[in-house]
Amino acid sequence: MNTVTEAGRYLTFTLNGEAYALDIFHVTEILEYRALTVVPMMPDFIRGVINLRGRAVPVIDIAIRFARGSTTIARRTSIIIVHIQDSSLAEIADLDSDDRGAADGQDIGILVDSATKVVTLQPDDIEPAPAFGAGIRADYISGMARRDNDFLILLDISHVLSISDMVRLSDLAQQSSSPMESGGVPVEPGSP
Fold first, then answer.
1. Is 188 a member of any domain?
2. Which stretches in the chain have pLDDT values below 70?
3. How many domains does the chain have?
4. Which SMART domains does this one have (predicted)?
5. What is the pLDDT of residues 60-87, one digit of tens each?
6. 158 secondary structure, DSSP code
7. Among residues 148, 161, 141, 167, which one has the least CA distance to residue 21?
8. How are beta strands 27-32 and 78-84 bridged, if at all?
């Protein structure tokens, strides 16, 4: 679990009416929602990809990732581009020599209702993540910040967007849908 020991700046955003924040260190930019290119056979939480200055950047709907339905596209819907490190990226970089910089991390877009503002939080404003009751996995939360009469959920974006977790979920989704065709008949490998 991450523990906040010094003041930090966090980007706040809303998702299905709840307030979240993530460390501004991971945020590279905030974009207005734009049409996504849908990639076939991806898990539901990968809504598609965007062309970001010539690079295909996957866009994750974290509402779906949190099992909270899907994000409804509206006027203030935003895509927050974050840069994450993941040990599995080094393996991907070894396999794909054209993916320059993959060993240094990956840019991923997260779809949110709206990006709100950047706030500075002191360590004493932040309480440890609860073991239960926040409605999402405890390892996705780095802490809870007191805010007026409510709490702001601070996300541990490296866990929320873990490439290895998402690849594993994608593999499971493909395995559960590949043995059967629409008629319910098992498909033999190599059959048309």
1. no
2. 1-6, 86-103, 131-136, 138, 163-192
3. 1
4. CheW
5. 998 988 888 899 999 999 999 999 876 5
6. H
7. 141
8. antiparallel
Map residue 66 onto helix, strand or coil.
Answer: coil
E strand residue ranges, the chain: 8-15, 18-23, 27-32, 46-52, 55-61, 78-84, 106-112, 114-121, 126-127, 141-147, 150-155
CATH number at residue 39: 2.40.50.180
Residue 74 pLDDT: 94
Domain region containing 47: 8-174
Please give the pLDDT value at position 33.
Answer: 95
Q: What tokens appear for 44 in the block?
A: 């539901």
- The backbone torsions φ and ψ at residue 5, rounded to the nearest 5 degrees and listed phi first, read -115, -10
Per-residue pLDDT, 101: 45
Per-residue pLDDT tens digits for 154-168: 998 887 877 666 666
* Residue 187 in domain: no
pTM score, two decimals? Answer: 0.74
In a domain, 55, yes or no: yes
Q: Is residue 184 part of a domain?
A: no
Residue 188 is encoded by which pair of tokens? 């033999």
pLDDT the model gives residue 159: 79
- Total length of the chain: 192
DSSP letters spanning 9-50? EEEEEEETTEEEEEEGGGEEEEEE----B--TT--TTEEEEE
